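Exercise: predict the structure of this protein bound to guanosine-5'-monophosphate.
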Amino acid sequence: MAEECIFCRIVAGEIPSDIVYQDGDFLAFRDIMPKAPTHVLIIPRTHITSAAELTEGQEKLAGRLIIIAKNLAEKEGIAENGFRLVINCGSEGGQIVPHLHLHLIGGRQMDAKLG
Ligand code: 5GP
Ligand code: ZN
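Solution:
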C-alpha cells in the first residue's frame, strides 16, 4: 500500500466509500463527486500509479477492469442505453488520483466530444 494514496486508503478501509463491488483483486465504489447519475470508479486493490505503469504481464488485470465495469453497467441499469468508460492518465490526461482507476459514467446523454 502506498501510504499517502487516497485509493489505497479506501482499499484498506481507512477512508469510507460507497462500495458497489469487490473481489480479491478489485474494488468498485461511487465517485464522491459524481459527473452523472451513475459514476463508479473501478480500481485494482494493488497500487498501480496509472495506465502508463501497466506491464505486458498485467493484461489480465487490465481486461478484468473493463469486464467488471460492463457487469456494473448492467447492474446499474445503464448497459442498454449506453455508458462511458474513461481512464485518465498522468497530468495532461487529467488524472488527479495517482492510483489506476476506470471511470464508469452513465445515466445521462454524454457529450460526443472528448476532452
Ligand atoms: P481522476 O481525475 O484522477 O481520473 O479522477 C479521480 C476521481 O476520484 C474524481 O472523479 C474524484 O471525484 C474522485 N475522488 C477523489 N477523492 C475521492 C474519495 O475520497 N472518495 C471517492 N469516492 N472518490 C474520490
Ligand atoms: Zn494506491
